[in-house]
Specification:
The protein is an all-alpha fold. The chain contains 3 helices and no strands. The protein has helices at 11-47, 52-82, 84-89. The longest helix is centred in the first third of the chain and has 37 residues, at 11-47.
């Protein structure tokens, strides 16, 4: 029986899924940079000039949170879209 592997075991499907994941991460990186820049601009408007350490903290905190959320949601979409969620229920 010539059986092709399902999900990420299939090279074509894996390539498609990982490309979608990388595209999602690229968009989330841009969204994180935009959010961090907006927060820095608002803080600078309210508090005046900011120290470099404050800006790095905002970039790490806000940008890092957006990136982490995007990565985790992307992995959830990858798992669901590639058939891995259904493979868990399949018992051989």
């Amino acid at each position: 029986m010539n059986h092709r592997p399902a999900g990420l075991g299939d090279p074509d499907q894996a390539n498609h899924a990982w490309t979608r994941f990388r595209n999602l991460l690229a968009w989330m990186t841009m969204a994180g940079m935009l959010c961090a820049a907006a927060v820095i601009a608002v803080m600078a408007h309210i508090q005046g000039p900011l120290h470099l350490v404050t800006m790095f903290a905002v970039i790490g905190g806000v940008g890092g949170s957006v990136m982490l959320a995007g990565a985790l949601m992307g992995l959830a979409f990858l798992s669901s879209g590639s058939g891995h969620d259904e493979d868990v229920e399949r018992i051989d």
